[in-house]
Design a protein that fits this description.
- This is Copper resistance protein D domain-containing protein.
- A two-stranded antiparallel ribbon has the order 1-2.
- By secondary structure, it is mainly alpha-helical.
- The chain has five helices and two strands.
- The chain has one domain.
- Helix 1 packs antiparallel against helix 5.
């Protein structure tokens, strides 16, 4: 195993994870509370402009987290067989993290496609828009915390 590849892949995995998680935190705790306090038409237009860049960045960073994590755990890590994956603490934690990232990815994709319909009715906020955004963000952030917990556990071989 080439240590250089391990370091590069691990670094990129962590960097992508920080970007993905940081983006969600920024959107959940900074952007959405601000948008929901602005006039609805202005908020919608602002989000549409942000989506062009932020949406791509989130999709790219989430995709990199997923694939670099698989690479780091298998080819550059200890998981070499289905038996190891399913019978060791590290393997099971890896599997849980993988599933959580998949759920986060699907949730993010679905949310980004439906957010306008769930938050806006033309140029007005829908009733319950703030609650929908809060619940969606809390769900995502809770999953991110669980993924981070898995990363910490795997660092210690669990």
């Amino acid at each position: 195993m080439n240590l250089t590849w391990i370091i590069v892949v691990h670094y990129l995995h962590v960097l992508a994870g920080m970007t993905w998680f940081g983006g969600y935190v920024f959107m959940a705790l900074g952007v959405w509370p601000t948008l929901l306090r602005r006039p609805p038409a202005e908020a919608k237009a602002t989000l549409q402009v942000m989506d062009r860049f932020v949406g791509r960045l989130m999709m790219l960073s989430g995709t990199l987290v997923f694939w670099l994590g698989i690479l780091r755990g298998t080819w550059l890590g200890p998981i070499r067989s289905w038996g190891y994956l399913l019978t060791t603490a590290y393997g099971l934690t890896f599997l849980v993290a993988l599933l959580l990232v998949l759920v986060l990815t699907v949730h993010g994709a679905v949310s980004s496609r439906t957010v306008y319909a769930k938050v806006w009715d033309g140029d007005r906020f829908r009733p319950g828009a703030a609650r929908y955004i809060r619940n969606s963000n809390l769900f995502s952030l809770a999953l991110f915390v669980l993924v981070l917990l898995c990363m910490v556990l795997m660092r210690f071989g669990m």
